[in-house]
């Protein structure tokens, strides 16, 4: 072999080595890139989550505080048009807004003219008059007296105090005009206006005025609806799971039931709303907008979830337990009810809580059965017209007033808090009762 | 007596029957030499007696309450004079509510004598129905107590009997799934058939004009009442496609990373966090899409020179919906990837493949059927999603493939047609049921195919 050819071979070998190295490098690069894609997509998903939550929280936090204005109100009989304090109908129909108007014009004597006065009274929530009426009707002795009260301010005043309305904008683009700004500044300088924790939000029903709108009505509606759902779906779901796991023979009927359960789990929720409308409302004549119908619809919707999770927890009970009980002479039903069911119950409860959380967040089917009505009263039973938390979110998000954005976000925060508590409870139960056989 | 009070009375009788049955079995056993001579434990005798009391009475009560209204209404209609009974359905329901008001004493004064007479019939029927309900239910319950008492004998096979009843109840509970499916099919089918009697099915499926407002007066403008559903199908597909374009790559890559690369610790933290996305109610996504994503997308696209982008765009709704179904895709793919046996991976590593090569060329093809099933399930979820599109996609039935325009979907139309005041027989309302039928069958097909694929895939490696 000549030197030349040996050189050529060596060069070839070196070349091959280089080529292999280069390829290896590119393969490793590709490996790193692939990994980076994975990390990037997880990061993207989590970023979306973070953006979603921060948007909602930053918008919603402000709704937990609201602005109050301090006014000295005098229950002047002439302003109220009351000549007999013992006459209840007079007290009920009296002009309480006039009292507010009077208190405001005493505070701002320079205000005059129709439009100006309207703007001035517009700074205090329309609920102020009702509040005065309730006070006077409770205690008619107040007639002619003067007292100092804090009133809810109008939502625009609240938005300004809160900095959501930018006071540096030109007047034409601002919802609060220059004069109102002046009044507010004057109130601020005399400590007659302040922001406090918004209890109204938690104690009121819905309202057209953002400052008096609250979520208690929707929360109670959700509560009643979920009670119905829980009372029906838990026993039925557990019973169905027990039958399918422990008793069902392998035949056509069982197969059909199983296929149906799996398919129902994936049927769009709005279709359940159509079912509720056609069957419960139009056929059985149950009342519209009522928690009982909502509960029935949500029961049908959550049943597959509950059945599937209950079956999984029954399956997790080892056969040795059944065999031992059977060996002691227990019947199949006794084995199931006395031994399998208690052991599977924690798992079933976990699944049920998760199903309830799903039901709590569901909106679409409830729109179909009329739970979207504007309801001011707080529902007191299963057949009262009601709405639920997610539907309240939907209703408020449709409202044109700027202040409802904060309210909507705050309602979402409350809803998410409930969901978080339910899910944490489920996790806690699972951790506490989880058994490894 | 209210139905709930009646229920309480029946329950009290049931408790009584239980106590009596149990006591009697013990008493009967005493002369024989103790309860060891009974066929079953005393408890079961009590339970059987309770079943005899509760079952017939409650079934009767349930049927009565369920059918009461329909029967009475029909009887009232039958009692109406011909000129009132032979009206259109809408008129008839109006007449009926007038009759009800008179019967409740709400509407007095200038009532039509025929109506007043009908109201009398109604009041009479309601009273006798109430009396019959209470009387028959209580009679059946008391009879049950007696039967339970008489049947209690030491030789009676109380436990097997009771267990048979209980098993029947369990079977009934599991049959609710079938009843629900049937209920869905029947309720949408009947209304749809009525809809297709008014609007030909070909126009519905192939028409390209959707404007469900029907003219009240003939000369009204812009209320043609066109029911061509093509724009809705296109809008639904457009949004679902956008959603899947977002969710599938992100969800799949997250699943691959979490199941193949991530350590246990990382996985245990990240997976629940990603699943939070699935736990957030859809109305929250809708709010986010309408208020944050929509305007953001409009600003971005107007910034780079597009004009006429609306804040309600298919893109905004699709993107947000995509975010929502990320965990859906990722957890389904995760399951499937984990189901691929490790021997396949080990073989690939043994041949010198890198991890990503193994994933791309071995694991992924092996898992592909399962992943496809998962994607189909995600697609059915995207098609059936309602709140996001109701709040962010708009109502305009544009036939367009431009994701920056507002489109509408099947679910949006169902929701808007049925929310608010509605006349139950107008094609407008019935159209919602026809759309519901379409939706139900589309998602059903997708689910059946997806579940079949996933099942086949599972069997392959089990």
Automatic annotation (TrEMBL), chain A:
The record, for InterPro entries, names:
DUF3333 (IPR024573), MetI-like (IPR000515), MetI-like_sf (IPR035906), Phosphate_PstA (IPR005672)
Record-annotated ABC transmembrane type-1 domain positions? 219-426
Give the GO molecular function terms.
Answer: phosphate transmembrane transporter activity
Q: How does it sit in the membrane?
A: Multi-pass membrane protein
Q: What is its main location?
A: membrane
Q: What processes does the entry annotate via GO biological process terms? A: phosphate ion transmembrane transport
One Gene Ontology cellular component? plasma membrane
Pfam families of this UniProt entry? BPD_transp_1, DUF3333
The protein's UniProt keywords, in alphabetical order, are: Cell membrane, Membrane, Transmembrane, Transmembrane helix, Transport
List the subcellular locations. Cell inner membrane; Cell membrane
Keyword presence, Transmembrane helix: yes
KW Protein biosynthesis (keyword) present: no
List membrane-spanning regions: 34-57, 223-244, 264-286, 292-314, 335-360, 404-429
Family that this chain belongs to: Belongs to the binding-protein-dependent transport system permease family. CysTW subfamily.
Q: What is this protein called?
A: Phosphate transport system permease protein PstA
The organism encoding this protein is Saccharospirillum salsuginis
From TrEMBL, chain B:
A single GO molecular function term of this UniProt record: phosphate transmembrane transporter activity
Question: Which InterPro entries does this one have?
Answer: MetI-like, MetI-like_sf, Phosphate_PstC, PstC_N, RhesusRHD
Q: What does this protein do?
A: Part of the binding-protein-dependent transport system for phosphate; probably responsible for the translocation of the substrate across the membrane.
According to the record, the segments passing through the membrane are: 45-67, 134-152, 168-190, 232-258, 278-297, 309-329, 362-383, 430-454
Q: Where in the cell is it found?
A: Cell inner membrane; Cell membrane
Query: Cellular component per GO?
Result: plasma membrane
- Domain named ABC transmembrane type-1 is located at 233-450
Instruction: Give the family from UniProt.
Output: Belongs to the binding-protein-dependent transport system permease family. CysTW subfamily.
Q: Which PANTHER family match?
A: PHOSPHATE TRANSPORT SYSTEM PERMEASE, PHOSPHATE TRANSPORT SYSTEM PERMEASE PROTEIN
Q: Name the Pfam families for this protein.
A: BPD_transp_1 (PF00528), DUF3708 (PF12501)
Xref: SUPFAM superfamilies: MetI-like
Q: Where is the major localization of this protein? A: membrane
Source organism per entry reads Saccharospirillum salsuginis
Q: Per the UniProt entry, what is one GO biological process?
A: phosphate ion transport
Q: Which Gene3D superfamilies match?
A: MetI-like
Protein name (database record)? Phosphate transport system permease protein
Q: Which UniProt keywords are listed?
A: Cell inner membrane, Cell membrane, Membrane, Phosphate transport, Transmembrane, Transmembrane helix, Transport
Q: How does it sit in the membrane?
A: Multi-pass membrane protein
């Amino acid at each position: 072999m000549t030197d030349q050819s040996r050189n050529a071979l060596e060069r070839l070998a070196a070349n091959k080595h280089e080529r292999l190295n280069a390829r290896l490098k590119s393969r490793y690069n590709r490996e790193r890139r692939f990994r980076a894609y994975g990390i990037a997509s997880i990061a993207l998903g989590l970023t979306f989550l973070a953006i979603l939550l921060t948007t909602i929280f930053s918008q919603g936090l402000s709704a937990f505080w609201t602005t109050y204005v301090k006014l000295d109100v005098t229950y002047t009989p002439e302003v109220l048009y009351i000549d007999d304090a013992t006459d209840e109908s007079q007290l009920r129909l009296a002009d309480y807004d006039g009292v507010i108007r009077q208190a405001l014009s005493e505070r701002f004597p320079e205000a005059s003219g129709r439009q100006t006065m309207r703007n001035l009274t517009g700074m205090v929530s329309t609920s102020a008059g009702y509040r005065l009426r309730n006070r006077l009707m409770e205690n008619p002795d107040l007639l002619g007296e003067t007292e100092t009260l804090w009133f809810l301010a109008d939502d625009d005043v609240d938005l300004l105090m809160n900095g959501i309305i930018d006071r540096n904008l030109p007047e034409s683009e601002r919802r609060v005009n220059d004069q109102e700004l002046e009044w507010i500044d004057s109130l601020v300088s005399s400590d007659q206006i302040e922001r406090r924790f918004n209890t109204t939000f938690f104690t009121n029903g819905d309202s057209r005025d953002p400052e008096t709108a609250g979520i208690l009505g929707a929360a109670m509606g959700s509560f009643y609806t979920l009670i119905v759902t829980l009372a029906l779906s838990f026993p039925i779901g557990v019973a169905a799971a027990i039958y399918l796991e422990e008793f069902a023979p392998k035949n056509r009927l069982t197969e059909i039931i199983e296929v149906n359960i799996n398919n129902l789990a994936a049927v769009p929720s709005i279709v359940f709303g159509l079912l509720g409308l056609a069957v419960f409302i139009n056929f059985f004549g149950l009342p519209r907008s009522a928690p009982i119908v909502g509960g029935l619809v949500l029961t049908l919707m959550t049943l597959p979830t509950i059945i599937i999770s209950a079956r999984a927890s029954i399956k997790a009970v080892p056969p040795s337990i059944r065999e031992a009980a059977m060996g002691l002479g227990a019947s199949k039903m006794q084995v199931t009810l006395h031994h399998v069911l208690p052991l599977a119950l924690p798992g079933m409860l976990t699944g049920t809580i998760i199903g309830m959380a799903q039901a709590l967040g569901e909106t679409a089917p409830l729109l179909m059965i009329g739970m979207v009505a504007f309801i001011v009263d707080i529902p007191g039973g299963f057949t009262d017209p009601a709405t639920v938390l997610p539907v309240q979110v939907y209703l408020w998000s449709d409202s044109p007033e700027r202040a409802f954005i904060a309210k909507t976000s705050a309602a979402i925060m409350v809803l998410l808090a409930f969901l978080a508590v339910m899910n944490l409870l489920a996790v806690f139960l699972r951790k506490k009762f989880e058994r490894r056989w | 007596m209210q139905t709930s009070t009646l229920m309480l009375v029946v329950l009290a009788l049931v408790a009584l029957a239980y106590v009596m049955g149990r006591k009697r079995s013990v008493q009967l056993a005493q002369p024989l030499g103790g309860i060891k001579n009974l066929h079953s434990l005393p408890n079961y005798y009590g339970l059987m007696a309770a079943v005899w009391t509760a079952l017939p009475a409650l079934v009767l009560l349930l049927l009565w309450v369920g059918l009461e209204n329909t029967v009475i209404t029909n009887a009232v209609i039958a009692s109406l004079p011909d000129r009132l009974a032979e009206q259109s359905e809408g008129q008839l329901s109006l007449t009926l509510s007038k009759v009800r008001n008179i019967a409740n004493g709400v509407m007095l004064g200038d009532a039509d004598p025929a109506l007043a007479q009908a109201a009398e019939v109604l009041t009479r029927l309601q009273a006798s129905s109430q009396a019959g309900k209470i009387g028959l239910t209580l009679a059946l319950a008391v009879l049950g107590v007696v039967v339970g008492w008489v049947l209690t004998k030491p030789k009676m096979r109380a436990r097997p009997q009771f267990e048979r009843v209980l098993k029947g109840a369990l079977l009934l509970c599991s049959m609710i799934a079938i009843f629900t499916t049937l209920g869905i099919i029947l309720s949408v089918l009947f209304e749809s058939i009525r809809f297709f009697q008014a609007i030909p099915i070909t126009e519905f499926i192939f028409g390209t004009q959707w404007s469900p407002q029907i003219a009240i007066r003939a000369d009204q403008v812009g209320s043609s009442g066109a029911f061509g559903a093509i724009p809705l199908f296109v809008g639904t597909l457009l949004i679902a496609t956008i959603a899947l374009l977002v969710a599938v790559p992100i969800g799949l890559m997250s699943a691959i990373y979490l199941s193949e690369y991530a350590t246990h610790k990382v996985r245990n933290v990240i997976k629940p966090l990603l699943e939070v996305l699935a736990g957030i109610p859809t109305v929250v996504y809708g709010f986010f899409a309408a208020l944050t994503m929509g305007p953001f997308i409009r600003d971005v696209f107007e910034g780079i020179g597009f004009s006429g982008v609306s804040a309600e765009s298919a893109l905004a709704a699709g993107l947000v919906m995509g975010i929502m179904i990320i965990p859906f895709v990722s957890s389904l793919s995760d399951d499937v990837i984990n189901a691929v046996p490790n021997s396949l991976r080990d073989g690939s590593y043994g041949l010198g493949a890198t991890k990503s090569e193994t994933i791309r060329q071995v694991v992924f093809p092996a898992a592909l059927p399962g992943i496809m099933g998962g994607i189909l399930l995600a697609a059915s979820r995207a098609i059936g999603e309602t709140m996001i599109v109701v709040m962010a996609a708009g109502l305009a039935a544009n036939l367009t493939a431009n994701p920056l325009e507002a489109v509408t979907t099947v679910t949006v139309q169902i929701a808007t047609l049925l929310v608010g005041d509605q006349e139950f027989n107008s094609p407008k309302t019935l159209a919602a049921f026809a759309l519901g039928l379409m939706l139900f069958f589309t998602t059903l097909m997708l689910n059946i195919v997806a579940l079949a694929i996933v099942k086949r895939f599972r069997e392959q490696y089990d």
